[in-house]
């Protein structure tokens, strides 16, 4: 195998060998690491279904060349729950019916986690909608998604305050 | 996608040397280049990955008060840099009106300057396109051309430059630092992108192997910080390229315009500086009539390249509105929908 990169995926460091330089991060996750949570909607940066966090920031993994991300830390939907305990964003998507068919949901949830980390939108639904505009939902679950992001953000802030106390 | 050699230099000289091989292309974050490679429009033999070069991701204040932005600074990081956003708010607004949060997190500023046109025929290897295959013709001329150019086009190519970022940059006299086989040089951003003429395949003044290392904004461009806006009309609320856009920046003194800057996006193969309009505004008091006169001057040479005569009047109106917003003053906080004339909240008044 002529190519070898090291990636920390969901907290586990792995050395990954492959033979084709064209592999995207999305294809690497899905086809070589069996992490099929990130979805391939458009493969062109136009839908957000492939969103993952790379070094803590949300990006479209379909437009990321795997080779270029040697040494990166990648977080996918498979890595966000703590054992049986759902991530607050996952729990909020369930509580607010933030999905129907579920195809866009891993991307929506990773994008929402990225948005909350970025901290620019605050509680304003219009700013949240704009900051989530890179994730399309064919089932149009948008209303529930915005509510879920607002709620999860509150839950995360409260948990942070409890930890600090 | 064709296959390619992959090299990952760690210094600028190594990158320039690696890109000397014919058929090389620089890879920044790849949000444009990989897309074009997937459809077979870009077919590089060698990718020179510049994302591991140290030192190109810094934003520095220069001794003369200007700002130097490394080519690998990510679009989102620049837009949210407080010092940058305070000095050049219209540029931050333009950045945040482009693409999506995910794309802005990845996209580099060098890649944004050098993104390729979005013309559907350019993207389709089975269509005639003088830009992709010189001499093959231009299928856009008699095809889907609603969103094509109204200024500076030629019958050989009517595509527009898609970048939002470049529009306020060109109004503010930005410079580009380039490292090439013969060392370092700098050119004004206005000289970077070329009009199509008879050679639409030549989009920029860069020579093969030239690497953009930084972008510079002069200190004097910050005099507009209190009255600078970017306004972008899209076919949907967010996550879409401009139909037309305008950057307007005013320096106000005693209620009058001391000097004005104006540029248009989505109208030509390059970000379009409207100097005659700028001159018509100097010394005037802001008002609808003089803004309309400036808009007429900005579009004086415009002509439709197809089914797009509407873009000319639309551009005039966007100019008037951008100037009015700039005159009203840069808002303390960017609106929820940067650059948008609309609100996404049903029934709400827009806050642009
Ligand atoms: C769905 C979608 C929507 C978008 N919407 C918008 C929008 O609304 N507004 C907007 O402005 N943009 C938009 N974009 C375009 C986006 O801004 C560009 O794709 C991005 O800025 C390119 O940066 P990059 O680092 O990914 O460049 P790459 O894709 O890596 O490179 C782009 C080009 O520049 C060359 N290059 C890159 N860096 C250098 C350098 N330092 N020196 C020399 N050559 C270099 C590459 O060889 C390549 O030809 C959109 C893109 C997508 C996919
Ligand atoms: S407008 Fe330009 S890019 Fe589009 S098909 Fe014609 S030559 Fe090609
Ligand atoms: S699959 Fe990546 S954005 Fe659609
Ligand atoms: S839940 Fe079906 S696409 Fe979003």
Concise account of the structure shown:
The complex is a heterodimer of chains A (165) and B (352). Chain A is an alpha+beta fold and 165 residues long.
Structure description:
The complex is a heterodimer of chains A (165) and B (352). With 165 residues, chain A is an alpha+beta fold. Helix content of chain A is 36%, strand content 15%. In chain A, helix 2 packs across helix 5. The longest helix of chain A has 23 residues. The model of chain A has no long low-confidence stretch (mean pLDDT 97). Chain B is an alpha+beta fold and 352 residues long. In chain B, the strands form 3 sheets. Chain B has a 5-stranded antiparallel β-sheet with strand order 4-5-8-6-7, covered by helices on one side. At the A-B interface, strand 4, helix 3 and helix 4 of A face helix 2 and helix 6 of B. The complex binds flavin-adenine dinucleotide, iron/sulfur cluster and FE2/S2 (inorganic) cluster (2 copies). The site of one FE2/S2 (inorganic) cluster has 11 residues of chain A, from loops.
Keywords:
heterodimer, A: 165 residues, alpha+beta, Ubiquitin-like (UB roll), DNA polymerase, domain 1, 2 domains, 5 helices, 5 strands, 36% helix, B: 352 residues, five-stranded antiparallel sheet, globular, binds flavin-adenine dinucleotide, binds FE2/S2 (inorganic) cluster
Write down the oligomeric state: heterodimer
CATH class of the largest domain in chain A: Alpha Beta
Helical content of chain A stands at 25-40%
The best one-word shape of chain A is globular
Please report which band the strand proportion of chain A falls in: under 5%, 5-15%, 15-25%, 25-35%, 35-45% or over 45%: 15-25%
Strand order of the largest sheet of chain B: 4-5-8-6-7
């Amino acid at each position: 195998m002529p190519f070898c990169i090291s990636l920390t995926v969901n907290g586990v460091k792995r050395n990954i060998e492959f033979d084709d330089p064209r592999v995207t991060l999305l294809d690497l996750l899905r086809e070589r690491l069996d992490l099929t949570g990130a979805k391939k909607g458009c493969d062109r940066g136009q839908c957000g279904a492939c969103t993952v966090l790379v070094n803590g920031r949300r990006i479209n993994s379909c437009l990321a060349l795997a080779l270029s991300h040697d040494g990166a830390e990648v977080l996918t939907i498979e890595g966000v729950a703590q054992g049986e305990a759902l991530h607050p964003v996952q729990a909020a998507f369930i509580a607010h019916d933030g999905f129907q068919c579920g195809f866009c949901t891993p991307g929506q949830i990773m994008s929402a986690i990225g948005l909350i980390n970025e901290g620019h939108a605050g509680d304003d639904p219009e700013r949240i909608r704009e900051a989530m505009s890179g994730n399309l939902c064919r089932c149009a679950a948008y209303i529930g998604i915005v509510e879920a992001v607002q709620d999860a953000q509150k839950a995360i802030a409260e948990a942070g305050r409890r930890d600090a106390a | 996608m064709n296959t390619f050699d992959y090299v990952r230099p760690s210094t600028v000289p190594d990158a320039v040397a690696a890109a000397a091989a014919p058929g090389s292309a620089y890879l920044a974050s790849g949000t444009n280049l990989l897309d074009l490679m997937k459809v077979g429009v870009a077919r590089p033999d060698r990718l020179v990955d510049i994302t591991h070069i140290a030192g190109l991701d810094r934003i520095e204040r220069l001794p003369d008060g200007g700002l130097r932005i490394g080519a690998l600074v990510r679009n989102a990081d620049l837009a949210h840099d407080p010092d940058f956003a305070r000095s050049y708010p219209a540029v931050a607004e333009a950045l945040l009106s482009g693409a999506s949060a995910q794309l802005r997190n990845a996209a580099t500023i060098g890649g944004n300057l050098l993104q390729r046109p979005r013309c559907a025929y350019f993207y389709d290897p089975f269509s005639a396109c003088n830009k992709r295959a010189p001499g093959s013709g231009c299928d856009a001329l008699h095809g889907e051309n609603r969103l094509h150019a109204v200024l500076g086009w030629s019958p050989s190519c009517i595509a527009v430059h898609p970048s939002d970022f470049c529009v306020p940059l060109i109004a503010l006299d930005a410079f580009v630092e380039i490292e090439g086989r013969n060392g370092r040089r700098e050119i004004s951003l206005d000289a970077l992108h070329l009009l199509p003429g008879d050679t639409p395949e030549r989009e920029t003044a860069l020579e093969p192997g030239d690497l953009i290392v930084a972008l510079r904004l002069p200190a004097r461009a910050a005099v507009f910080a209190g009255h600078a806006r970017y306004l972008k009309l899209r076919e949907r609320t967010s996550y879409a390229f401009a139909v037309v856009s305008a950057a307007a920046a005013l320096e106000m003194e005693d209620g009058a315009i001391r000097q004005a800057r104006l540029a248009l996006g989505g109208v030509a193969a390059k970000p379009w500086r409207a100097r005659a309009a700028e001159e018509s505004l100097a010394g005037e008091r802001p008002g609808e009539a003089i803004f309309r006169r400036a808009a007429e001057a900005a579009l004086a040479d415009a002509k439709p390249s197809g089914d797009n005569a509407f873009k000319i009047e639309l551009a005039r109106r966007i100019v008037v509105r951008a100037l009015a917003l700039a005159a009203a003053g840069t808002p303390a906080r960017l609106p929820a929908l940067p650059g948008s004339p609309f609100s996404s909240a049903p029934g709400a008044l827009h806050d642009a």
